[in-house]
């Protein structure tokens, strides 16, 4: 049994109050907006993959390097696509969420069924270990780790293969997986999806190599393994250096501004405080939510450079002062004064 449930552990989260009508408006899901986000992202994946294939067919091999880097950069954000789709907020029509999440989970080599089991706990108990073990502070980075993920992530390929082979055989890779899956109904679905991943991508590889199209598995099955630099800089802003075991998402999550292209690829997760505070709001409405509550949010960094300048400063201080966590400055609102 999940330990958090067994102990009846709960977190009394503070959320910036919203008028009911505004909250209803922000929670509204749209198939049109969903297709603009999910369909547009899928279109970018297809075009970049087609570009790699055409370069492979018609140009010399050095041209493959930038073509693959662009394709990998785009495809690395499939984890964010899966993240939004398992929340069930992208499309108004439920089966469209299901259809797209299966597509991105397969081609991104992601076990979306385990991801949702883990991510549910992450939202309920954000940074309250051991109830949330999806993200545990402090988070540390290394130059070698960044370089592997940014260009060709061979360890990442090995890790995914090892993980899914174990899962396909009904074994778990760590205590967190065992805690969430052992004895649970979701166990069979999680194991079966790993089997589908292995079998499906193996079939793609065999057929492609048989017809002399060795580039196809690189485009389709290994797109997660190269070009991850931008994903690193965007995804790793979410909680690093902030407060754990707090009841305020403004202290444990980070929102920052970035350009429209990055926001699109990142599925608007730069509005991360807003996403945690109101997880039912679709990604394409998070900017509106931000505008509605920004007077009660900490100062919002403008761009990745400013955001990472701050993060690096916090990480450096954590090296000098183990246990240090940055505490964002929260404005004093009229609502909080009244309380």
Automatic annotation (TrEMBL):
What's a single GO CC term here? membrane
EC identifiers of the protein:
1.14.19.-
Keywords in alphabetical order: Membrane, Oxidoreductase, Transmembrane, Transmembrane helix
- InterPro entries on file: FA_desaturase_dom
Mind telling me which residue stretches traverse the membrane in this protein?
38-57, 63-83, 95-115, 135-154, 196-216
Which enzyme class? oxidoreductase
Q: Start and end of every Fatty acid desaturase domain?
A: 61-301
Q: Which Pfam families match?
A: FA_desaturase
Gene Ontology BP terms: ceramide biosynthetic process
Recall the GO molecular function terms of this protein's record. Answer: sphingolipid delta-4 desaturase activity
Its name, as the record gives it, is: Fatty acid desaturase
Organism, as annotated: Rubellicoccus peritrichatus
